[in-house]
Every structure is written in structure tokens, then in C-alpha cells.
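Task: sequence in, structure out. Protein: Amino acid-binding protein.
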Amino acid sequence: MSYLLRLVVPDRPGSLGAVATALGVVGVDILSVEVLERGNGYAVDDIVVELPEDRLADSLITAALTVPGVQVESLRPFSGPLDTHRELELLDELARAGRQGAHLLAEMLPRVHHAGWAVVLRCTEPDDVTVLAAHPAAPSLTELAMPWLPLGAPLLLPSEGEWLPERWREMAIEMMAAPVDARGTAVLLGRSGGPAFRRSELLRLAHLAGLAATVAELPPV
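Result:
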């Protein structure tokens, strides 16, 4: 079974190699590594691994923690496709779709960000929100108050926000959002059970949203 392991690793030569060695000892196959951010002497890495059927998921955590200075931020099952060019694929598809790209954003952004779902919204006035497209796994937003709309800048929306229903807080639904264009369109990404989105992920989403808006204005390919 595949898992997504998020680690905080000392940012020094050999640290990631030591983690790979420790995981290899328990029979774990590393499928991909993505560095999310670096700074203050540490790096945050998302590592997709394949765990043998006779091993428990906890063995991943135990193995990673044998490396001095390593912290395990989260571990969750991973079923998405492995694609190192996810952003390029998304922009290529958007170029083909032209102005009809909202459904593509909702469908493909969760793959880019290892998220659970995405929703494309339009809001020009408070309490007047239209869902333009939603990922099949997205929860219903009908009963959800979103006081942060209309959105003027990228925003992290952690699961402890007081505006969230109690059930959403219990499920630890982490979210982030970014404006797509000047017409009030925004994209909302979420995942249940963490990990919380980091600033580097938010900046990446904002960059992609801006590119998507530019591509949407081009004639379809």
C-alpha cells in the first residue's frame, strides 16, 4: 500500500539519505520525494512510499524517527498518480479548455497539492457565493458560512477556525484558498486529517491560480 509521509528533516548533507536508508531497512520502497520548503536549518519533505503488505504503517514512523533530528508531521494513505509534471499537465489542459477550465481546476488541483478535494467559487458580494465546479470528493458548502469571501489574497484556513462547523473541526479539515481572477473567482482546496497546509503550498497555489487565469484568456488550442 502507498503512503504519503511528511517529514521535517535537518537541512544538512546526508539527512535525506539517512532517512531513505532507515526506510529501506524495514522494506519500504520510496516512490517520490518532493521538497516543500527549506529554512531555519530544516527542510519539509513529502515522501510517497510503498509499504509491503506484511508491514504496519506505524513501522514507517518508527523507522523515520531513528534518524536524529527527524520529525514526522503526518502519515496518510496515498492513492493519487505519481506525476512529476502535474503543474505542466494542468496548464496544458487549461489551454485546451479556454474559459471552460473551472472543472479542470477542481479535478486536477488536488493531484498537484496532494489534497483531498477542490472547489472553484465565485463571490463578488458577501453571502452571495456560487459554486462553479467541485471535485467529486468535495463536501457540500451549502450550509457553510465563508466570512473570508470575497477573497483578495491567498489565505490559509486551518481546521481550528471558529467560523467552521464543529463537525469540520473534529475531522481536522485543513483548507487554503487563492483568488483566480478579478471577477471574484477563487479556488478552495481541502484535505481531512491534515497535515495543515504550509505557506509554501499556499504560494504555489496562488502562482498556479494566476497562471490559470492567464491561460483561460487565451484562445483554445
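Strands lie at 2-10, 29-39, 42-50, 71-77, 117-125, 128-134, 155-157, 173-179, 185-192.
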